[in-house]
């Protein structure tokens, strides 16, 4: 059962960037829960976090479009997002990408502390959810 971080806890960023590649090929299921956790932020700034996939961890192989994107965030908090890769069997690696910006008075440098956790959704939960949807 995959349970790890695309962006480690308490990662502090002041500019756009990418997380390390995470190998998901051993996951038994292709549905994951992503959890964006923003633990520190200053006023008048925003963060956009997306997840990209690739068949290898080669820098040139990453998908041109994100597989998932969190809505833009401005405040501390936990934000879940379901990532269904059943239709994307070629995605063997995932990585997070973030963009930050700041406006208003004071320093123009944004500052966020956040993490992105990825957890494989178990087959039991998928079956229960499917049965409830019927």
Detailed description of the structure:
The protein has one helix at 123-133; strands spanning 3-13, 17-18, 22-23, 31-41, 45-54, 68-69, 77-84, 93-102, 112-120. It is mainly β and 134 residues long. Strands 2, 3, 5, 6 and 8 form a five-stranded antiparallel beta sheet that branches. Strands 1-9-4-7 form a four-stranded antiparallel beta sheet, with no helix packed on it. It is globular and about 50 Å long. The model has no long low-confidence stretch (mean pLDDT 92).
Short structural summary:
This protein is mainly β. It is built from 1 helix and 9 strands; from the N terminus they run βββββββββα. The chain has one helix spanning 123-133; strands at 3-13, 17-18, 22-23, 31-41, 45-54, 68-69, 77-84, 93-102, 112-120.
Q: What does the secondary structure layout of this molecule look like, with pairings?
A:
Layout: E1 3-13, E2 17-18, E3 22-23, E4 31-41, E5 45-54, E6 68-69, E7 77-84, E8 93-102, E9 112-120, H1 123-133
Antiparallel strand pairs: 1-9, 2-8, 3-8, 4-7, 4-9, 5-6, 5-8
List keywords for this structure.
mainly beta, 4-stranded antiparallel sheet, Jelly Rolls, 1 helix, globular, 5-stranded antiparallel sheet, 8% helix, single chain
Range of strand content: over 45%
Secondary structure tally: strands: 9
Radius of gyration: 16 Å
Largest sheet: 5 strands, antiparallel
**Content-based structural category:** mainly beta
Count up the helices: 1
């Amino acid at each position: 059962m995959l349970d790890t971080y695309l962006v480690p806890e308490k990662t502090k960023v002041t500019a756009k960037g990418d997380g390390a590649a995470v190998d998901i090929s051993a996951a038994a299921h292709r549905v994951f829960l992503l959890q964006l956790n923003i633990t520190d932020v200053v006023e008048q700034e925003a963060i956009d976090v997306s997840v990209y996939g690739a068949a290898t961890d080669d820098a040139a192989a990453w998908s041109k479009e994100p597989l998932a994107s969190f809505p833009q965030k401005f405040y501390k908090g936990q934000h879940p997002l379901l990532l269904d890769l059943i239709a994307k069997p070629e995605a063997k690696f995932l990585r997070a990408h973030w963009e930050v910006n700041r406006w208003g008075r004071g320093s123009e440098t944004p500052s966020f502390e956040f993490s992105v956790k990825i957890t494989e959704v178990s087959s039991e939960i998928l079956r229960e959810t499917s049965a409830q949807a019927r």
